[in-house]
Every structure is written in structure tokens, then in C-alpha cells.
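Weekly modeling sync, notes
Attendees: AB, CL, MP (scribe)

Item 1: holo prediction request
CL wants a bound-state model with adenosine-5'-diphosphate before deciding which constructs to order. AB pointed out that an apo prediction alone won't tell us much about the pocket. Agreed to run with the ligand included and paste results into these notes for async review.

Input as submitted:
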Amino acid sequence: MESEEDDMDCAPVVPNIKRDAPNILITGTPGVGKSTLCKKVAETTGMNWLEISKIAKENNCLEEYDEVYQCPVLDEDKLMDGLEETMCQGGNIVDYHSCEFFPERWFDVVFVLRTDNTTLYDRLIKRGYAGKKLEDNVDCEIFQVVLDEAKNSYKENLIHELSSVTPENLEQNLEKIYLWIQHWFENNQT
Ligand SMILES: Nc1ncnc2c1ncn2[C@@H]1O[C@H](COP(=O)(O)OP(=O)(O)O)[C@@H](O)[C@H]1O
């Protein structure tokens, strides 16, 4: 739940000022196709692609290394503070495999990419995942952990689940996102 104080961070001094462009969150289990999709959206629209894992690494926002899950643990507060100004400006497409710690007010829409487990398994094997890391990520997708996380963190009407199995899906998803962006600008003209 957001605190009142948290709510004020991005709140304009003059009420009802809106962002000039929307902020989009693309989330889903590792390997579902977030980077592939974000890269294309950024190239086509000029939106600012924020790869959270990369940004965290470049800005020393990683704490210790989780040996069990074989991944670094994020210093979420430091990362959020560093991104606040950029997010307040709008026009960002945020790419991360988790979504519950971002401030809800940052996003105008949330797309959760989904695959079937065989597809995800093959993609993660190709990426070199093995053992518990492989198993846990496939389980994460089977049990729709990221989708549930999104549903618990954002208003239901902001969340769109997108199938990301085939190249045709990619094209369809891009179309949906472009249409959504177009509608946002039509509805938010100053
Ligand atoms: N819609 C799709 N159809 C087929 N392959 C895809 C699709 N989206 C992504 N891929 C492939 O799946 C792999 C993982 O995609 P990636 O974008 O790196 O996932 P993520 O960023 O979610 O970890 C890559 O090899 C990519 O080419």
C-alpha cells in the first residue's frame, strides 16, 4: 500500500498536471520476451527503454548475491530514488521481471508477457540457466507469479496479459502497444 508521503513524491505542485508522455511497464518471468518487445517499442516510438537490471548494475544498486537463486539482490530504495525524476517526466518503457516494488503512480499501463512452460524452458536452457534457477523460473511462469504480483500492485484495468510465444505474437503485441500509446495521447492532449 502506498503511503501518503509516497503519493506526494511525483505529485505536481500545481494539481492535475499530467505527464507529457505515458510510462509503460513491461513485466514477466525472465525469458518471456520483455527485452525483445521493449527494444522494438523504443526504436519505433522513441520512448526511453529502462532495463532495470542493467541500470541497477551500472548505478551500484545491487546489494548481496543470492546464492540460491543465483542472482543479485536489488537495493530497491536507491534504485527508486535514482529513477524518480526520469519517471516523473514520462515517456519511459520499463523492463523488469518483478513489479511490486515500483510506485504504482509511475505507470499508466502494465503489460505482463506470458509463455507456455515448454517454450520458456527451451529459451532459458539456451540462455544457460540450469538446476534450481531454471526450475524456479519455469515454476514462476506456471504459477503466474508475476501476473499475480501485478494484480496485487496495480489497478486491474491497467493490466494487460499478452501471449509471447511466437513471432506473430510479437507483432500483435507491438500493434496493441502502439494503439494503446496512440489512445493515450488522444486522451491526454493538453
Ligand atoms: N514473441 C516471441 N516469439 C519467439 N521468440 C521470442 C519472442 N519473444 C522473445 N523471443 C525470444 O526469446 C528469448 C528471450 O527473450 P528476451 O526478450 O531476452 O526475454 P526477457 O527480456 O523477458 O528475459 C530470445 O531468444 C528472444 O529472441
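Recorded for review: Residues 1-5, 11-17 have pLDDT under 50 and may be disordered.
Action items: CL to compare against the apo run; MP to circulate these notes.
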